[in-house]
From TrEMBL:
Residues 40-49 have a biased composition (Pro residues). The keyword Cytoplasm does not apply. Signal peptide: none annotated. The lineage of its organism: Bacteria, Bacillati, Actinomycetota, Actinomycetes, Micromonosporales. It comes from Micromonospora chalcea. This is DUF6311 domain-containing protein. Residues 1-58 are annotated as: Disordered. It comes from the Bacteria. Keywords: Membrane, Transmembrane, Transmembrane helix. InterPro entries: DUF6311 (IPR046278). The chain crosses the membrane at residues 72-91, 158-181, 193-212, 263-279, 291-311, 365-382, 389-409, 429-448, 468-485. Residues 123-419 form the DUF6311 domain.
Amino acid sequence: MTPAETRGASTPDAAAPTGHRSVTLDPPPVTVAEPEPATTTPPQPPAEPEAPATPGARRVRRWRWTRRRIDLIVYGGFLLAAIWVTSGIWADPAGRVAALYSSDPAQVQFFLAHSVRVVLHGEFPFFTEQFNYPDGVNLMANTAILALGIPMVPVTLLFGPAVSFVTLVTLGLAGTAAAWYRVLSRHVIRHRPAAAVAAWFCGFSPAMLSHANWHPNIISQFLLPFIVWRVLVLTRSTRPVRDGVLLALLVTAQAFINEEILLFTALALGVFLIAVVVQQRERWTTAWRPLGAGLAVCAALAGALLAYPLYVQFAGPMAYHGLSDAVRDYGNDIAAYFAPGSPTFGGNERANVNLAPNYSEENAFFGWSLSLIAVGIVIWLRRDVIVRALAATGLFFAVLSLGERISWWDRELVTGPWEFLVRLPLLDAVVPTRFGLITSVTVAILLAYAVRRAWALRVVDRRTARKLTAAGLILALLPIAPMPLRVTTREPVPKFITADRWRQYVGPDQTLVSVPVPAMGNTDPMRWAASTNLDFKIPGGYFLAPRNGVTGDPGRFGGRPSGIGEMLREVSSTGRTPKLDDRQRRRYLDELRHWNAAVVVLPLAEQNAEPLRRTVEQLVGPGRQELDVWLWDVRKLTSRPA
């Protein structure tokens, strides 16, 4: 790209759509566009007649780097990178899953199938009894991704929930990067090379790659740049009511993707704006009226649209208050900010042990080079108010992400500030390690500021300056460049399910009980149900619910404790067949009656299938093999009196 073309690509508002207000955090450098070449041919003196053109001769058109073509190339690069990251799953969506963890993909596929039932059968969207029967599951309290699942209904119907899952992961990564690029290049930074660098890191940071293993709801952040932009617009809006309405619609849509990420966005914007106003109080005198009016309109409209869903979430059946103790203190180790993420070019899973709660929550992991360069950028541009505000915001949430106990290489040092915030309303439902996602975005925007400033340096040899800038970016970003997610194979859905043989046994209000019973570590039966668009109910499953099924209690993973579920889980893991006495048989049969079980199903390929078969036979008698499962028809044992 020539200097003239670069200047044209970064000219403020050149590509902004008509009717949209551009908002810059600080004035961009003044640039002078070179005159465009003449488009008309000047008059020519009379000349001799030209010779006829050679047959087949063609006019050669010179390629022009237009703004639209540049944007399309950038968007295409993001999409190719996302396909590269998910390529292992795309090879066989139904038979492969990310190797680092396998429970959440089955849960997401279940939610995608629920969206099909919402659209085709008008099923209630915020609660379901299709798993954890008969208690059911509060879907608003379990991130049912309705804003993603409903648009994906055609894909789910045509290709199945496994294809929908990997599609969402791919589009989540690419869409997040593309959205940040559009907002930064057109409305905030207004410099395409700088915006591309920042958008790349927003979409493919180690934290995003980590969550790509199993959290499409977390990596689908394509609305967040527009929410940030609309809030910035409000600070100088002349039409705060209209702008407040637009913001409310974005907020409402994001609430049905992931409420935790929406809360993070609000907190980050609040801290950032406070950091700016503290440094330049005169900004507040002009910003508070439109900002206050717009936010009031946004709160009123979004509050009205979300009132009933939030009522179901916090006061409806199977609502819980506060997260499970198992995840409440998920925090980053300080050293995690200096190590590369596991799914990156320079990453090492073994080196990252104990630096994060697990491999799906690597919410820091910038690597030494990027961490040092980020600090260097802040020092270099320390006179810039926005840079100082970004640095303060990133540091604030980096500290919160360390959790209740701050540690260095797994050695506890001091009590963290999160200890005093974890019990506050709303914050009691936050996983603290994920505050690192906010720090990732602030680092990305700092990179954009540095690239834009380096591009505009008034030095003798600009080409050399830009080469040095590119070298610095390679040094910072190459160690954490995205690599394809590691995958592992999983057992296919049994033919007994895919051939619809279960339909002759299971009625509308009955359940299909798998062996082992569905739970956090055994989510395959949720995939079975999802493959049928949830046409049969299952007991148990992987979800968050109040302890012991009592609405309003603190949350835990799974439903009420199950004796038969625990017993079968132990047999599956140990291979030892217990000897059941009459008391245990009566207790376990009562559980089957509570679930209104129609059949008990054990796949032939299940781990320790033979000890599990002998155990079930002690309880309900001999089973029979049907296709690729052992089957026990228990309707006579569990039928309820008329």
